[in-house]
Amino acid sequence: MQTSADSAKMECLWSCWKNQAIDLLYWRDIKQTGIVFGSVLLLLFSLTQFSVVSVIAYLALAALSATISFRIYKSVLQAVQKTDEGHPFKAYLDMDTTLSEEQIQKYADSALLYVNSTVKELRRLFLVQDLVDSLKFAVLMWLLTYVGAIFNGLTLLIMAVVSMFTLPVVYEKYQAQIDQYLGLVRTHVNSVVAKIQAKIPGAKRKTE
Asked: pTM for this one?
């Protein structure tokens, strides 16, 4: 059974992971972010040329070639120097990578909460609980048909990755100007929606 110390350790690891993700997206360490960004783009571009099975197989072969070569190199080096440093990957082999029942339950609960909220929102939109929201959703789906005709899913994924590694930096640098323009757009959209709600019977929201 997982102790409170283990739970605190997992929370610390989760917090560290989030901080590392933020550091990557905001290019705090240019070299590290560049390696991750380049590797992800290389993987995605590889998928545009080869099948998923081929890409996975090539990556596995590359990783195995690197680890086997390093293992042989260290073994030869130890034999020449007559040292006994042990297995070069011993620290990683001894690392505990098992998930506890509490961790699995936590992730399962989070996933279930997300699925339930998504199903509830889709039900609300498709069954027209709010006419304006359903119309906005229909317009979005209509626009996506044009996006899908121009880009495939992999291309959109590449664009999403590029946006993830560029937009946070741009927003951080020009936050004041972007917030100003977003405020104007939000005001205009809210004005248009209010006019539509006023003209469509039954589209007015309840006063909170």
From this structure: 0.61
